[in-house]
Design a protein that fits this description.
alpha+beta; 2 helices; about 30% helix
Length: about 130
């Protein structure tokens, strides 16, 4: 009896090991990551309902504020905000991904690694 039990276990052990290691659900590459990024975008959009899309691009974004407000640059490829800054009327914001810098009126306010291959969007929210 014991020998019969050991023989049956020996037959099914490799199959059980494969199922345990491989798992029982199909994996779709990139699907989970895409959902997380979309959720981040939705949360950020809900938080900032009054902001207006000014421009988007990959290398250089420029904007002159018509009046006092808040400018925000968002990396659309990973869903994170790069910078948020207050602007007065007439201030000029320059976002230069190739040089890894952001300027307000030719004064550097951000100097970190920025991927110039990503797509960026500039928002502006006027203060009332």
């Amino acid at each position: 009896m014991n020998q019969l039990f050991n023989t049956r276990c020996a037959r099914f052990a490799p199959a059980l090991f494969f199922v345990a290691v491989a798992g029982c659900h199909e994996y779709e590459p990139g699907h989970r990551d895409r959902v997380i990024i979309e959720e981040r975008r939705e949360i950020r959009t809900d938080q900032r309902r009054d902001r207006v899309i000014i421009t988007e691009g990959r290398h250089l974004l420029e904007f002159r504020a018509p009046r006092r407000g808040i400018a925000t640059v968002v990396d659309l490829d990973n869903g994170r905000e790069i910078i948020t800054t207050d602007l007065d009327g007439g201030d000029r914001l320059t976002f230069d991904a190739d040089r890894n810098k952001v300027y307000v009126n030719d004064r550097k306010i951000y100097d970190h690694d920025i991927n110039s291959k990503h797509l960026y969007r500039l928002y502006f929210d006027e203060r009332r």
